[in-house]
Each structure stands twice: as structure tokens, then as C-alpha cells.
Give the backbone structure.
Amino acid sequence: MRFSAVIVAAGSGSRVGGPAKQWRLLAGKPVARWSLEALLAAGAQSVVVVISPQDREIAERAFDGLRKWSLAEGGAERHASVRAGLLALQAPQNVLIHDAARPFVAASHVEQLLAALEGAEAALPALPVADTLKREQDGGLTTVPRDGLWRAQTPQAFRYDALMAAFAVWPESEVPTDDAAVIERAGGRVARVPGDPMLMKLTYAEDFPMAERLAGAARIVRTGMGLDAHRFGPGDAVWLCGVEIAHTAALVGHSDADAGLHALTDAILGAIGEGDIGDHFPPSDPQWKGASSDRFLVHALELLKAKGGRLLNVDVTLVCERPKIKPHRQAMRERLAQLLELPLDRVSVKATTTEGMGYTGREEGLMAQAIASVETPA
């Protein structure tokens, strides 16, 4: 089911102390970016992040490198910010509204909510109240029955038209405590899906140490492998791993035939389940004739970022008798580090021969193999 999303990130975060909590770093990246990456990875067509006007610059830095998002300025109250975000969307059929301070949303949460939305105007995740509840009264505490009580979480899912219609009749003098309350008042049905303790809301300073520990459990490491080969033809230079090397022949291919970059592109695409280089840059398309292969590699990296992932390290092995790779290996590592935005010690380039055997041994062509490790939302 197609959906768009609104992330509410306009609060001041005064209870947490210091910078607004949505812009504080959690496991090395801003809290709000966790939610944006996760919703994009779950398939959001577009995401509007609602911010305070003074936060525009910090938000643009926080979301740099991601796609399909835009900013909207929020209001004095949360419901005003939500409405601003909804109006900024291009009239989707379904919309998820999520608090930026809940960083551990996952694709599984989105799937459950959208499935529940098929039979209701709204759906939300909720956890039963487990603790004994007390109310302060006459200087002491009295027990409050907890039967039938639930803790509502976000994201909350809505049929867009139903939510906009419900907001239109909501009394201006009242402030809804969450968005599902707007549907409830209008007589719509709100479905419940199982809540998740991982959807915790960062509210107080002491929440962050716990979130740091949980951050490691919210990500997985994936590995992809790529292999490419090109034959030699007329020419006086070859391109390998983004470096031009003088040689007695050139590599033949539709693009610049950089086997190292092609193998590495396939490794990244494989790690995120996005097919291979031919799916994205078919050799039948004339626009890629003679193209520089660094464009292919950067495209794969952008797809990884759009899924909320990051590249951890790469390892390339070049198989050929000639040209000799060792004199150029450092330049190759530096070029790959630049293209992939990685520290040099996370980039490896190696070379070997086949002891005169096979097409590489006969110097009919060369081969490259690459492995890439990435980290993505679980």
C-alpha cells in the first residue's frame, strides 16, 4: 500500500535539556534522521519534516544525502505542526504521522499499520499499561484501575481525506493529545496494532543512554559481492578503480569499462537487494556509451543512503598479468575513498594473477571482484 509521511520535529525539547532532542546525536547521527531514514526505507513516497523556522539550517545538514523529503514550518502547538505537514503533502491516499523523538521505527511497524488501515480510518500501535497507576489526592496516592488502558505510540496511520475532514471540524479551542483523537471525535474507527517497546519516546536526558544501547540493536550489517570482466582491445590506457593507467591496450566496454568500479557497484547493489549494474545502466542505452563509471558507483551509494544505510568498508581484488597494479594501488584507494566518502583504512585494493592460466593469464582481458559491507535499518 502506498503511503507518505509527516515527521513532527518542531518541538523545543525543553525537558531533555541542551539542544532540541530531535537534533541531538544518537549513535553518531541526529535523532530525527533515524526516523526519516526508516520511513524512506519502508517505502514512503515522500516525507515532510515539520520544523521550527529557526531549525531549517540544522535540518538540512541533518538530512543531507537523503532523497524524497521536504521541510515545512510548524506552529505553536503540535496539532498545528501536523496540519502544516499534511497540507505540504501532495494529497496522498494514506499518511503516517510520526514523532521525531521516536527514532526506532521500522518497516515492520509500517506494514502492520497499513494493513490495519484497510478496515479503519486510522491505526496506531499501542502497549498495555503494565505498571500500577496512582493518582495524587489529598496529599497522598490512590490506585487507579489500569484495565483497558493502553499507551498510544507513533507512527499513527490515517486515510488522508478522513484525517483532513476530521481536522476541519476539530474545535479551535481544544488541543488533541494525539492525531488519532481527531479521528475519534469525528466518529471514525481507530484500529490498534501491537505496540513495541522499541518505539520509546526520548523525553528526558536519562532516556538517551538507554537509546544509545538500543541503537546497536536497531541496525544490521549486510554484505554484497560483485564480479566483472572486460577484454582488452586497441588503445593505450585502461581505467581501473577510477584511475587511468597507461598500458599497451584498452579495456573494451559500453562505458569506460572500469571493471573495478563495475564490480564494486554490483557489490553495493547486491548488499541492498537492488539488482545489478545492468538493471540501472543497461548497455543498450546510448546515454551510457563511454560514460565514466564513477557515476554508476555514486548512484549505488545514493540508493544505499536512501534506504537509511551507510557503507562500512570495501575490498577490491583485480586479477590480471598486466598492467601491474601495485604502483597505482594507493591512488586507487584514495579515489575510491573520495567517491565513497570513506576513511582510507576502510578501502582495500589488492591484485593477483592466475599464474598464466585462463583468459587473464593469456592477457586477453582482466577481472575484478569486490566485496562491500553496509549497515542498514533492521
Remarks:
- The chain has two domains: 4-205, 220-377.
- The first strand starts at residue 4 and ends at 9.
